[in-house]
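Posting this for the archive.
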Amino acid sequence: MSYLEPSEFAKKMVDAGEQKIFMSTKDTFIRAMMAGAILALAAFFAITVLTQTGNAVLAACLFPVGFIMLYLMKFDLLTGVFTLVPLALIDKRPGCDMNGLLRNWGLVFLGNFAGALMVAFFASFILTYGYQADGGAVASKVASIGEARTLGYKSHGILGWFTIFIRGMLCNWMVSMGVVLAMISTSAISKIFAMWMPIMLFFYMVFEHSIVNMFLFPFSMIMGGDFEILDYFLWNEIPTALGNLAGGFLLVGLPLYLTHVRESKSRTPKTIGGEVEA
């Protein structure tokens, strides 16, 4: 059968977390870099569709193609390892410790950022013919998005910061559900359909994804967005990444582990006065 029970794929989640801790530095970085690049290209594609059609639903429906490609190639996003790698520590897998976790997260962060920046350069170059022409409607759209999602949050102070954090939580709740749902089947078509739904939801709802933002905000600055690098990190990337961590681990990884890997024994019925009572 192509369908796996939750108890089966929850164990696969722990196995995946363990495998990522012990993956070589070369493989971890390359897979992360390619994941960041593919997701960035998908974001560029979706923004172009949105700009040209004005149809946010269509853009949200098409964006998941990037996530699907990188998942099927077994490339790694920071959002995914936030969810999976801690499970190997909680399960006390041999050799899995905090140093290994932080090593994995650090390498994946650097790889994702390198891939996203590469595509930001490619996208800005082709829109401006080597920075010699105006980038057109797409460039203007990207610049305005960057300003709204840094300075816009900053204008609300600490409540703006927590707004980004919660948007980041909600984002990786859905993104990690996409990762997990892809494990419920051994069929490629089923995996694709299962991933598509939560990724489409997060994109349409404009939740904050740290790797998408690694592309979006450098791209926005190149295209004329009027904000500083410090604004980007303090008023987007840092709270988004922290929110992604909290959402992926607390809303997906940990609950599934506690109820499907460490499932408690079922209650036994009691007989009271000749009647069965649960």
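Residues 53 and 191 are 29 Å apart (CA to CA). The longest strand covers residues 270-272.
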